[in-house]
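Researcher: I'd like a structural prediction for the single chain below. Treat it as a standalone chain; there are no partners to consider.
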Amino acid sequence: HHHHHHQQQQQQPGVLARKNTLFSLGSKRKKEEEQRSSKFHHGAVEISNFKLVEELEPGVVDRVFTRSAYLHSEAIVDFFASLAQVSIMELSEPMSRVFCLQKLVEIVYYNLKRPAVVWERIWRVLGSFFETAGCHPAPNVSMYAVDSLRAISMTFLQTSEAAGGSSRHFQTQFLSPLLSIVANRSSTPDLQQLVLDCVERMVEAHAENIRSGWPVVLAVLQAVTDRVPSSSSSSSSSS
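Model: Treating it as a single chain, here is the predicted structure.
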């Protein structure tokens, strides 16, 4: 009963009216106190509305994301949390969408200059998000999530702040979703292979920057080895 026709007809004329919700973001301050509890819900609704606005004014949505770099530390953590929440909603639709997942990866780039302590807080949200997305039953979703995680990890390994310096445990933190995904009993051989390829590429490109990440890298290799039946040892063992 998965009806595979695009849900184009759902674009009701109310889109224009909803456009205003995006621009009421500014006046939200006043109500912030009583809204603390339902903050993530509001964030989720706002981001859902972005998609409606995008059809009208493509630039508006981009600015919301590119300007995330100017949000203060509290706000950027909330922004990532809201975006991750909407992404989970999108991914669990019958026709999984990756709009917010793509945006998450983009915002990481815009916010690379943030201090490691802020990134550690952001990753508490993103780590569990990527574990969920990477263990999604639909292969196209789980593989997309792993590939996004690879792109983000490669970027972190190239960034001195994240690679070493003040963030001693950050590598362990941002690489550990890969281990959770591989160790997940329901992960397919294809997905395992993809994680293996990702780790291999990271090591090839940035071995000299990997520090606290090594135990995770080795644990991923171990987990994959444990899962492979001895008959099919077809994985390339070129270290």
